Automatic annotation (TrEMBL):
Keywords: Cell cycle, Cell division, Chaperone, Cytoplasm, Isomerase, Rotamase. It catalyses: [protein]-peptidylproline (omega=180) = [protein]-peptidylproline (omega=0). It comes from Blastochloris tepida. Gene3D superfamilies: 3.10.50.40, Trigger factor ribosome-binding domain, Trigger factor, C-terminal domain. PROSITE patterns: FKBP_PPIASE. It is an enzyme of class 5 (isomerase). The gene is tig. Belongs to the FKBP-type PPIase family. Tig subfamily. This is Trigger factor. The lineage of its organism: Bacteria, Pseudomonadati, Pseudomonadota, Alphaproteobacteria, Hyphomicrobiales. One of its GO terms (biological process) is cell division.
Length: 453
């Protein structure tokens, strides 16, 4: 094997490799010897098939296997000899002329090919003890539990039809049918029949429910509203619409006693047990959100403290993944870059920076995880797989089999476990304090966040 470096630029390396025909032929001969004892061919006793006959039958396919194995070994040797850490799999370029390929397959010529490699940069980790972070904490108060109970009451409240001639009031449930038009034309999704609406619940477009106050059963009225500017369906966002609404029934809310009997309707033995369950759920939600805020701040700190050349291939791969997701969501929602108050070029620049950030942080976390000897056990991956399978009721076995048969899919379960372990390790190294905030402040920060982490 002859190896010649032909390019050394930044993180990219390129080599010209020559595999001698004699070496390839020797490998093929060994392969034919293995085949001789295994193949069964009419007219020959087992193990007595001449190598020349095997070569006529299987020569090209055997040589193709030999070349594939030899190239893989040669590339691996280059990586080992140069102590490379590869960013991506090597890119091999074989001769383009068919005559050259034929000569190699027939054992008449050496195989000369080029292999391009992109290596990982050397990463100097920052002093993590100099990073100071605040963890926002919003403890669950009794009032939060009471509000959650009130929402459960509203969701499970009985309704009784009001007497004939009654008019709808706030908190009444009205059953309506409606047809919506924009500029006099019906639009998709703007019509429905027999829809129950609790007046004042905020489940419809802002302003819609307010105009149902005073409506009577059998009455038809026009409700005029404006779709929010950030409405999910882009073709309706910001548009004025008129709905012809007909009310068929008005029902008044009944009283619900918040006691053990109410708790039993929700699967709990007592009202205290229900409140404890609600407190645990709310605490878990806030802890998760608090950690997300803290993790985002930690990643921001890492991003500003590390600067190094990024493997172009990794960045491009990450960008294509992000861009496909973004454009897919926009297409599904019927939105355009103009709707987002930007251009495709500007959006590409923005998401390219996001891809670069993700790659940079991924390399920093990987380097730290390696130096801290952080491992993900098979048991941890199995538990994650069990949880993933449980999220698809009735398809658990198919999900289990899919992940077990696909190493890349299984790696997608391992990666976030590794990342969270590295984050936990990092949080033990930084200066960490807690900052008490209100529930509204905690959730408002979530709304303001951009998904660039």
């Amino acid at each position: 094997m002859q190896v010649t470096k032909t390019s050394d630029e930044g993180l990219k390396r390129e080599f010209r490799v020559v595999l001698e025909a004699s070496d390839l032929d020797g490998r093929a001969a060994s392969r034919f010897e293995e085949l001789k004892d295994r193949v069964r061919i009419n007219g020959f006793r087992p193990g007595k098939v001449p190598a020349s006959h095997l070569k006529r039958l299987y020569g090209r396919s055997v040589m193709a296997e030999v070349i594939e194995q030899a190239v893989a070994e040669a590339n691996s040797q280059i990586v080992t000899d140069n102590s490379f850490k590869l960013a991506l799999e090597p890119k091999v370029t074989f001769p383009e002329e068919q005559s050259e390929i034929e000569a190699v397959l027939e054992g008449r010529s050496d195989l000369a090919y080029t292999v391009a490699m992109e290596i990982l940069p050397e990463i100097v980790l920052a002093d993590f003890s100099a990073i100071a972070l605040e963890k926002p904490v919003a403890p669950v108060e009794d009032a939060d539990v009471d509000q959650a109970i009130d929402r459960l009451v509203d969701q499970n409240r009985p309704y009784e039809p009001r007497p004939e001639g009654s008019k709808a009031e706030q908190r009444d449930r009205v059953t309506i049918s409606f047809k919506g038009t924009i500029d006099g034309e019906l639009f998709d999704g703007g019509s429905a029949d027999d829809v129950p609406v609790v007046v004042g619940s905020g489940s419809f477009i802002p302003g819609f429910e307010d105009q149902l106050v005073g409506i009577a059963a059998g009455e038809t009225r026009t409700v005029n509203v404006t779709f929010p500017a950030n409405y999910l369906a882009a073709h309706l966002a910001g548009k004025d619409a008129a709905f012809e609404v007909t009310c068929s029934e008005i029902a008044a809310p009944g009283h619900v006693e918040i006691d053990d009997a109410f708790a039993k309707t929700l699967g709990m033995d007592t009202i205290d047990a229900l409140k404890d369950a609600i407190r645990q759920r709310l605490t878990g939600e806030r802890e998760g959100l608090s950690r997300a805020r803290l993790k985002r701040a930690l990643l921001d700190a890492l991003d500003t403290r590390h600067s190094f050349a990024l493997p172009e291939g990794l960045v491009s791969q990450e960008f294509e993944s992000v861009w496909a997701q973004i454009t897919g969501e926009m297409k599904q929602g019927g939105r355009t870059f103009e709707d987002e108050k930007t251009t495709e070029e500007a959006a590409r620049d923005e998401y390219r920076k996001i891809a670069e950030r993700r790659v940079r942080l991924g390399l920093v976390l990987a380097e730290l995880g390696q130096k801290a000897d952080i491992k993900v056990t098979d048991d941890e991956v199995t538990r994650a797989l069990v949880e993933r399978a449980r999220s698809f009721p009735g398809q658990e076995q198919q999900v289990w089999d899919y992940y077990r048969k696909n190493p890349n899919a299984l790696a997608s379960l391992r990666a976030p476990i590794f990342e969270e372990k590295v984050v936990d390790h990092l949080l033990s190294l930084v200066q960490l304090t807690e900052k008490r905030v209100t529930k509204d402040e905690l959730f408002r920060e979530e709304d303001a966040d951009k998904p660039a982490a």
